[in-house]
Amino acid sequence: MAQRCLTFPLRHFSLSQLLLFAKDASALDSQQSINFMTRQMCARFARIYASTCSVFVNKPNDTVALKSAIDGTCSRLLVFPKTTKQNAWDLLSKELEHIDTEIDRFVNLLKSMSGPAPNSTPSLSTSTSTEHRTLSPFSTDVVNKYLDEVNVHLIELRLQTRHLKSLLSEDTVRDKVIDEDCNIHALVTDTVSHARQFCIEKNSLAPEVEVRGDEKTTAICPPHFIHFILMEVLKNSMRAMIEKHHTNVDISPPLQLTLSADQDDVGIRVSDTGGGVPRGLQHHMFDYFYTTSMPFEPTYTYSRAFGAPFTGLGVGLPRSRLYARYLGGDLSVCSVPGYGADVYITFRRRGDNIKSLL
């Protein structure tokens, strides 16, 4: 079944195209639209399976469960019953969650094959941290390419399915998966507040953050994408500042966040005084599972991330860059040795992220 689904063409939708489609009630209601979406899901699931097999070529037993799950899902989707529109999108969401679980298992397997390099002694200081290289049967390039490809498929599927499902929800108070008029300044300010609360819960203190920019800047975007990107960047910047300034971080120069925009693009710059990123480590910044954080036990206090560690998983920055690129922009870092780092986030303002990442 997975082999058959590999022949189905992929279709990339920009945010503006998804919004136009959603405004057409007859399109949402149509069995043809539901059938189209089921084939898109099958095509992407099949490609995820093909990529997984190419990476785990020497572990056929580990791919059996994924093949079984994808074959079962695709078989169900291709004979999708004619049903009410709400039930249809609910069923699609459940199938997506099912495959999500299987893919998470593979990502965890990939991570479990990595461990700290011999004689590597992590330091609490960002400026003197030893590289946390990993011993893995896979090269860094293979891991990065595989996880980027899987994540792109999942980004597309999750966004499309959840957006269309939310439009059919009977709940009058619902979060917008794609906001046509998102106030970026308000979103940034809210995310900064969450990041500082999280930092205080995990570290007992947090640097001050100064937000600059037009308070009326709006854009078409999925707010949860921007929130995720900023949270990851802010967590890294806050950790670096705490490690450099220690208990004086609350009286050190504030972490600065600048928001700007023109007709086509939105830009966000996050500037910290955390000492910068050593040149020898910069080429690892966007590697999956790479981290300079010292392992520690998570605490169980902050309600938005119960028991989650503040940093150290090694997936935040590569996923954040992927989200930014999906939105037609990018994420880059410029480090000033011994002083700090600037992170630049850009994304398209009008939802015209036409280019596919695959």
- Which whole number gives the mean pLDDT? 80
Distance between the termini: 22 Å
Approximately how much beta-strand content do the residues carry?
5-15%
- State the oligomer: single chain
Structural shape: globular
Beta-strand segment tally:
7
Order of helices and strands: HHHHHHHEHEEHEEHHEE
Tally of DSSP helical segments: 11
Proportion of residues in helical segments:
40-55%
- Given helix and strand content, the structural type is alpha+beta
Which stretches are poorly predicted, pLDDT < 50 over at least 5 residues?
114-135, 298-312
Strands side by side in the biggest sheet: 2-4-5-7-6
**Major sheet, described briefly?**
5 strands, mixed
Whole-angstrom Rg: 21 Å
Task: Explain this structure.
It is globular, with a radius of gyration of 21 Å. The protein has 11 helices and 7 strands. α8 (184-203) packs across α9 (223-245). Helix content is 49%, strand content 12%. A hairpin with a 3-residue loop joins β6 (330-336) and β7. The protein has 358 residues and is of the alpha+beta class. The strands form 2 sheets. It has a 5-stranded mixed beta sheet, with helices on one face. Mean pLDDT is 80; it is low at 114-135 and 298-312. The longest helix is centred in the N-terminal third of the chain and has 28 residues, at 85-112.
